[in-house]
Specification:
Elements lengths: L13 H10 L20 E6 L6 E8 L8 H11 L1 E3 L11 H9 L4 E8 L4 E9 L3 H21 L2 H17 L4 H14 L6 H9 L3 H12 L5 E6 L7 H7 L6
Parallel strand pairs: 1-6
Antiparallel strand pairs: 2-5, 2-6, 3-4, 4-5
Length: about 250
């Protein structure tokens, strides 16, 4: 099957005429789908120490979910709760993100960015940061990430969850500012979902994530899971993966 999507005002039948004009002579053939084995997540550590870089670039993540997983929007809300920050932007004490306020007070790292990267079969949920070339700075930053995951699981408040939901919807709408961005969004959704998801449905899915749902999902993805720990630069203080895994065990609560 084939289809054409458009995102601008067209008179009835005009899109069909344009399609026939530009694509009418194209020949279609039946191509069997290539079957690829499902991707498999493996917890691991990669440390490329290079003190000459002057700073430590580190990332800690756990296995996330795929594009089509029902937990997708809950993980996106958790990602939005953690947010991002850097010293250049200032406003540390007044940042809406509790994690941003915490790292500002502890004066580490120089910057950080939460990420929730989704693929067809799996994903990565974590935080990337840039730290001073100091053993304690790297260890404290990794510990702060784990503490924030536990805080969201234990005590994320209804107010901050609603703020994160509102911000996520704003960001999703901002990504569709302009015809080029809209066409990219249409293509992305057709590839991942097989259809264009209406904005009303996206709004309903985001609003369906209550604080209790968010806590349940975060607990399932963070606790007792093999982490991925990556470091490059002045990473002398990068902790051992087994220690990280132990600190994320449910027995630590």
């Amino acid at each position: 099957s084939s289809g054409i999507n458009a995102e601008w005002p067209l008179r009835p039948g005009e899109l069909v005429k344009l399609a026939e004009k530009h694509f009418g002579d194209m020949q279609t053939t039946n191509v069997s789908e290539v079957e690829y084995p499902a991707a498999r997540y493996s917890g691991s550590t990669m440390n490329n120490r290079d003190d000459a870089m002057g700073l430590a670039h580190v990332a800690l993540a756990v296995e996330g979910c795929s594009w089509t997983n029902p937990d997708y929007f809950a993980m996106m809300i958790a990602n939005t709760l953690i947010g991002n920050w850097n010293r250049a932007q200032g406003g540390g004490r007044t940042m809406p993100s509790a994690f941003a306020r915490k790292v500002y007070e502890q004066k580490h790292p120089q910057s950080y960015m939460a990420f929730n990267t989704c693929y067809k079969d799996t994903g990565l949920f974590g935080v990337y940061g840039v730290c001073e070339p100091d053993e304690d700075a790297v260890r404290k930053f990794i510990g702060a990430i784990q503490s924030e995951w536990r805080r969201i699981f234990r005590s994320a408040s209804p107010g901050e969850v609603q703020r994160a939901k509102n911000l996520l919807k704003t960001l999703l709408l901002a990504q569709c500012d302009g015809s080029t961005a809209v066409c990219e969004d249409i293509g992305r959704q057709m590839l991942t979902y097989g259809r264009r998801i209406p904005l009303a449905e996206i709004d309903a899915r985001v609003e369906a994530v209550t604080p209790s749902v968010l806590k349940k999902v975060v607990g399932e993805y963070v606790y007792d899971r093999d982490p991925v720990l990556v470091g490059i630069g002045a990473t002398e203080g990068l902790p051992d993966q087994l220690l990280i895994k132990f600190q994320q065990s449910s027995g630590m609560d």
